[in-house]
Design brief:
alpha/beta, Rossmann fold, 6 strands, single chain
Length: 136
């Protein structure tokens, strides 16, 4: 288990402030117990939003990566929970490197055999001062 300084505290503070939870997977979104969130925080998964499939095809990427682009209006101060797609974590890190708004914390736990370990290492290497947790 690898984490930066204070991901639990950063996530808890963000939730107390009303920040949304952004996730790459419907399974993660449905696994969040909304009644336990302190401010009726929104849980947002854009994977199945209108236009995501077409955007992914246009960009030659996965739906998961394209869905991360739709987080832009909600990203500043958010709790990001990547629980499925390495491509979502890679895309988030790309956006942050390009100057996207910074989330309060990144929980990076993508699964699978292709890209998962590499995306987690990229989080460790490139999160900067954004609090994070991952399991390489």
């Amino acid at each position: 288990f690898v984490m930066s300084n204070g991901p639990a505290q950063a996530g808890a503070a963000a939730l107390r402030a009303g920040a949304p939870v952004l996730t790459d997977a419907e399974m993660v979104a449905h696994g969040v117990i909304s009644s336990r969130l302190p401010k009726a925080n929104r849980v947002i998964c854009t994977l199945n939003d209108d236009g995501i499939r077409d955007r992914a095809a246009d960009l030659g990427t996965t739906r998961s990566a394209a869905a991360v682009d739709a987080w832009a209006p909600h990203l500043a101060g958010a709790v990001v929970a990547i629980g499925n797609a390495p491509t979502a974590l890679f895309r988030l890190l790309e956006l942050l490197a390009e100057g996207a708004p910074r989330p309060a914390v990144i929980l990076g736990f993508p699964v699978g055999f292709i890209g998962a370990a590499e995306s987690k290492q990229a989080l460790i290497d490139h999160a900067g001062d954004i609090p994070f947790a991952t399991l390489p």
